[in-house]
Amino acid sequence: MRKDSKLTLLTFLGLLLVGLSSCVPSENNGGGGRSSSRGGTANNTFSVSPNNGRYLTDNPVVLSGDDTLDSSVDLSRFLSPTQTFITENQFLIAPCGAGGASLSQCFEVRKNETSGFITATENRWAFPTTTDEFLQVQTFGNMRDIMDKFHDNLEFSYNLARGYGYPSALPSQLFTSDDNAYWFKNGVLKGYADCGVENNAFYDPAGNIVCMGAIVGNDQVVISPPLKVASDPQVTWHEMGHAFNKVNVNIRQRSFEQSILQETDLGYLFYDEAGSINEGLADFYSFFMNKKTIFAEWALGRYLRQARPISESEDIHAPGFSETASGRLSYPQFVTYDPNEPDVPFEDVHYSGQIASHFFHAFYKSLMDTNICGLSSDNALKMTMHLVFETLAEVGDQTATGYGNLSSTYNVNLNPTNAIEWISKARPITYRRFFQVYSKYFLQTLGNPLYSFCNGREYYRDDYEKLLDSYGLLLFKTYNENGNGTAFGHTGTNTTVTPTNRVKSQLIPKDLLILDQRENAPSAFVIDSQSDVKNAIESLLLGGRIASISSEIDSNFAYNNGNAKVSPGEVVGLAINLFNNSNSTMGGVRVLANDWDHTKAGAPCNNLGDNFPLDSEGAAQLSSGEGAPGGCDWTTRFNGKEPAETGEELAPVCLVELNDDDSTKWVTQDKLRVQMGLPKKRCLGGENETTDCFIRAIKGADHAFYSKLDPQKTWAETLITDEGVPTFNTSNVIFMEVSPSIPPGTTFNCRLRASFTNCEDCHHDATKLNDDYLDYEFSGARPFKLINFRFTVID
Amino acid sequence: MKKGLFFISLILLGAIFFWYQKGNKDDWQTFVKKENQLIKTYPTTSREKKEARIDKGAAKSSAQNSHTQAQSTKRAPASLKKGPPASKTPQNQRITIALPDQTVIKDASPLNKPHKEWKKRLGNEILRFMRPETKVYLKKLESLTVYEKGRPLHVEKVHVKLTTPEGRLFSYNALVDSETGKVVETWNQTNHEPMGGQTKKIRPSGALINDKEESIRF
Questions:
Q1: Looking at the partner chain, which of A265, A536, A791 has a beta carbon nearest the beta carbon of B208?
Q2: A443: closest CA among A459, A430, A429, A467?
Q3: Which run of H or E residues covers position A447?
Q4: pLDDT for A264-315, tens place per residue?
Q5: Which residue in A has a C-alpha nearest to residue B173's C-alpha?
Q6: What is the dihedral of CA A609, A613, A616, A621, to 10 degrees?
Q7: What is the C-alpha to C-alpha distance for residues A256 and A416, in angstroms, rounded to an integer?
Q8: Which of A541, A546, A577 is best to mutate for the B interface (most B CBs within 10 A)?
Q9: What residues in A contact B31, CB-CB < 8 Å?
Q10: CA–CA separation, A620 and B179 (whole Å)
């Protein structure tokens, strides 16, 4: 053999020997990882025992303390050498259980929806951190950890409620129901560790999917290599938080196996307060796992500057915030606050949700404070979540019983038939409603002197009310223990909030919410250009926010002429220009354009507080039975859906001005149709729906939500930072179909109802010792400010 | 010989086609809008399922964990549920749901009559206002009879997925009128965590001025 060939051969053999030796576990390792030359854990197959592996237990910034890490950072540097049990399964599929019940398959993890399951290598789940396999093990571990903790907490709450015996919203059938009330009724929760979406992660409840994408950057920054969102466990926990919220708001109907037509959601519009609370809770689920008061500083913060704090003490906050009564992130002032850009108001559920997450953290801390309650950290967290579980179970309840056993006594959400409408629209989950119920359960547990939760005493109600008030959330006058049901909603005694504890929380009379009356002020902004309406309707249809649009409307919106007026044949968006005529900020302003109980015997009632219409203008002639069905001061008890309640049908909001022989009257739309001789089939809803023949709000886009109105301002003035034209989200706009058959010159008066979260008299009935209005009253006028919006249809 | 092979090939092709159609009978259906309002429909292809992120359901038959327990056999007291659980009902059977507080008018005629083309009508309805190359994927979950003011209404519960021409994906559940294909209710919309970009805003054409027939244009 030639000399150089021998050298080559020897070199080759030497390299081969070195390579083979790396496959043999080190004797000193004890199953731990081998350090790389840079100090990381190599995470090779035989560095762990069977069924074990490794994954990051928090994001790289937390684990390293370095917030300048690059997306190409070697994640093995942050892996603990200690191995963790992954699964004995062949695939990444996890069981779950609580309260003696269990499911063999609760969730599964794959790379995405088209990929197969990965399998363990030699029964081991250790993979290099640069691989797809590692990311899936990472996601699996993070999902499993939080799911186990969630179920532990749920079981704790269940046992606590059973043990103390107060009227709990957590049913006794929680763990025995065939509908798997403690998890998902149908199917396994699917986790996709690298699902291919850019700058996004999402929870898809329809497909029961948690999808983790990748951060690729934006116009300002390009991130290469992309930052895999699953490498930040906090985002995984946040998405799982959405899944848990879904479970919680459906817990009662599932426990009782009640058939429902659709599941309860927590959030129904692009922006609403239910969605904000959903986001705030999801952020808090990250704290729930790691006790860190900043969310996602790796996935969201590193490049995109969108990390979110969970405590006022975080440096990311603008100056001025602190964990003191005066320094809290309070409602409604800070609903549009983005800590990364504090001078730019931003209406988004993720930012509004910070008020909720900050309160939960503050409450948790107060539970540990020895001057207040003195619980351990673990118990403080459990109790904070216990109240969340109780609250979500009650407010999302479609059995409408609210708490206790199933019965025909309805205490919340009117009744099963109308529960979804109440939850989503009529009496939605706002900051006020959520925290009133949260507070009720506080009073029944921590605040109950009989139970002595806090080392021999209760958590004093005064301390609690002051903490809630520091967040601007002491928005209720009683704890409403008697619920909102027709039968018992005004019986018994409710605990009254101590008025002197309400310092920061501002309650404002509803009469101070008005249409902007200033000279030349708009009554409404009009969206009627073809392109803008097309984009808006497409967005609403894609998002599943609206149902169907009339066949009378042209598919290309050909009639939309962009003349800023309401014209026949258009779909027109209206952003009602409400003005806050008070000296305090109004939060959670809502405008409803859905059908409600304001007419009797086919004519509009004029005793509803809005002085419309006059008797001479066609107002309803009251029946002889005042205070009885059929009269103008009777509100339907069943939202107009009970066949036996005759004469109590709901009516569309828009009335039409009709010229009679000798007078002008305001009448229902069908009367105009009859006068015109228009066939029923030409009505917007077809021949079976003639009450809204000419103008109707599109279902799903028939209510608008505004985050806040500053004092003496409109929403547009509150949100815009320059003198430009205001722009809107879909949730700020009511979309209406306008029939092509309307004669130009026809005038309509749409009797809209408005409310807001920190309203003095939208929620409390002063005639009933400030007890909450009963649910059925939200079909009528009393809880609302009536806004008469008038316009003439112009060709 | 040649003829025999030819006939065998035909039979084989027929069998494959039959199997494909059978497999897709209650599976996803695609509706895509083309130019000139034309809407095409066909069983969703594998490639489209990938684009729409429709889970093909990875094989799990061998993945049962023999070490975990079966679901607890504890039974609750009798529930007040109306109708049999959906999971125990043959797929083609319509489930009647009367909510506990609803009045059911005896022998009332239904408000609608199921139409075999309801899915097509639904697809057309959703796509009517969409841009060309927008796709809708529909899968029927259940056929239901519910009650509206005491009278039966036939509806279909569906899973709706949509992709825009740019590839953005959306998903939700819906109840659909079994005759007209019109959407009655929607829920389970996806919770997105949009990062790195602002949501598109709506710009008004102008504004109506208080009580006047005037408006200003922007």
A1: A791
A2: A459
A3: none
A4: 999 999 999 999 999 999 999 999 999 999 999 999 999 999 999 999 999 9
A5: A206
A6: -70
A7: 13
A8: A541
A9: none
A10: 37
Q: Would you say A103 and A90 are in contact if contact means Cβ atoms under 8 Å apart?
A: no
- Tell how strand B135-148 and strand B29-33 pair up: antiparallel
What is the C-alpha separation between A282 and A352, in angstroms, rounded?
13
Taking only the tens place, the pLDDT of each residue in B25-83 is 558 999 999 887 789 999 999 889 888 888 876 544 333 322 222 333 222 223 223 33
Binning chain B into helix, strand and coil, the percentages to the nearest 5 are: 20, 30, 50
- Taking the Cβ of residue B189 and every Cβ of chain A, the question of whether any pair is shorter than 8 Å is answered with yes
Which amino acid would we find at residue A433? R
d(CA A587, CA A756): 6
Q: Which of B23, B90, B91 is nearest to B57 (CA)?
A: B23
Q: What is the ipTM of this complex?
A: 0.90
The CA R_g of chain B, rounded to the nearest whole Å, is 24
Residues in chain B: 218
- In A396-457, alpha helices (H): 419-421, 431-444
pLDDT at B26: 56
Contacts of B186 in chain A (CB under 8 A): 544-547, 700
Distance CA A569, CA A740 (A): 4
- Alpha carbon distance A231, A242 (integer Å): 19
Question: Could you give the C-alpha distances from A234 to A2, A291, A301, in angstroms and in order?
Answer: 61, 11, 12
For the four alpha carbons of A240, A246, A252 and A255, in that order, the dihedral sign comes to: negative
Per-residue pLDDT of A687-698, as tens digits, reads 999 999 999 999
**DSSP symbols for B114-129:** --TTHHHHHHHHHHTT
Amino acid of residue A82: T
Taking the Cβ of residue B202 and every Cβ of chain A, the question of whether any pair is shorter than 8 Å is answered with yes
Q: Are A542 and B137 in contact (CB under 8 A)?
A: no
pLDDT above 80 (res A423): yes
Helix (H) or strand (E) holding A383: helix A377-395
What is the rounded CA–CA span in Å between residue B99 and residue A261?
Answer: 9
Cβ atoms within 10 Å, residue B58: 16
Of A399, A555, A725, the CB nearest to B203: A725
Q: What is the pLDDT at residue B60? A: 43
What span, in angstroms and rounded, lies between the C-alpha atoms of A115 and A32? 30
Kindly write down the DSSP assignment for every residue of A737-768, as one continuous string: EE-TTSPTT-EEEEEEEEE-TTBSTTTEEGGG
| Segments in A585-739 forming alpha helices (H) | 669-676, 715-719
Nearest of A99, A102, A60 to residue A79 by alpha carbon: A60
Separation of alpha carbons A663 and A362, rounded Å: 62
Task: State how far the Cα of A486 lies from the Cα of A687, in Å rounded to an integer.
Answer: 35
A603 within 8 A of A667, measured Cβ to Cβ: yes
CA dist A153 and A54 (Å) reads 25
DSSP element (H, E) containing A367: helix A349-368
Do residues A57 and A233 touch, judged by C-beta distance below 8 A? yes
Question: A113, B62: Cβ pair inside 8 Å?
Answer: no
Rounded Cα gap, residues A629 and A600, in angstroms: 10
- Quick one: chain A helix, strand, coil %, rounded to 5? 30, 15, 55
